[in-house]
Amino acid sequence: MGQRKRTSQSSQPAGNRSNAKTATLLPFLSGSPHLRPPPLESKMAAATEMHEEDREEDPLPDSPPKGNSGASADIELRDILRNLPTKRDLTTQLSVMERNVNGRIDALSSDIKHLGGRILDLEEDRDSLFTHVEHLNVQVAEQAKHLTNLHRHLDDIDNRGRRNNIRIKGYPESDESPENLVELLRHLFNDILHRPEDAKIKFDRAHRALKPRGATTDQPRDIICRLHDFVVKEEILRAARKTATIKVDGCSVALYQDVSWITLQARRLLRPITAALREREIRYRWGFPLALHAQKGNTTHSIITPADVSGFLMAFGLPEMDVADWYGAASTLAPPAQPQRQRWNQVAKKRKAKPQSPPMSSSPGHGTGLRAISPLRSSQELT
């Protein structure tokens, strides 16, 4: 019984033990389809060469032959080791990859150089355009000054033609058509001057404002009259300013110097400044051509153009006010600075250092830590 136990322990042949050891290495050495173990057909073909007596004695007909199993495993291991890539194979593949990468880098470098040249051209053109635009801005500013002076001269000519005119606001309209405005105004002016109603005042003309007549509830149209004598016109306006209220048929009437439309718009735009001057009890007067004069101490400050507003406010300690240009000219202020990009700078060329490959052992499978790569793979798969 003791001998049977020994024979049972040593019944497994040495070939099977070596086969078990090599079988455990196959999953780690099969990195590619070329390194897979041969199919079972080769083992079955080897099994067909056995004698009929051995097949009758073998209880498992599908198991590999006992005598050739160790030799078959050695052959498979040699095939696997033979198919492992060598240092020359790895060097060849790395050189192919390096050529492909260098080619792409060279293409990118040429594109970057081309773009850099175009950027330099654009920056040079931009500098020339900036110089041209600055020159145009100076010319536009000069043209704006000339236009402002022309507007002032035209406005002055228009106002000079109205020097003898008086504009009457609030005088009620009668149902008579046409109205005898000359007689109505003569009675009104003589009453203001405290003169007899039939005192002679010479009129050149008198008419209502040139617009359609409104409803009875609307504000009556203004009356514009031209007196022949400038001195009489000044006396009437001076007396009207001294009179608290002027009533005609229960309606309040106001007398003003007739001015051009541009002067009227400018006075409306300067109304916040005149209101601030009245609050501080600072006396002011209007000048011709259009100007606003106010005196502080022995110095007279004036607003002649929109550019004089800031200095006028600063002189009297008034808060800043936004007053539009009554001549309608474009603003001569410089546009706000735009963010600028950094200028293009070409990078100095650097010498390419040759890549240093780490030393590799020529003998395969000595702990290099590299996965098995088949030399049959194409360079496209590696890149």
Automatic annotation (TrEMBL):
Biased composition (Polar residues): 8-22
Pfam families linked: Transposase_22
Location of the region described as Disordered in the Swiss-Prot/TrEMBL record: 1-74, 334-383
UniProt domain L1 transposable element RRM: residue ranges: 163-255
Similarity comment: Belongs to the transposase 22 family.
Name assigned to this protein: L1 transposable element RRM domain-containing protein
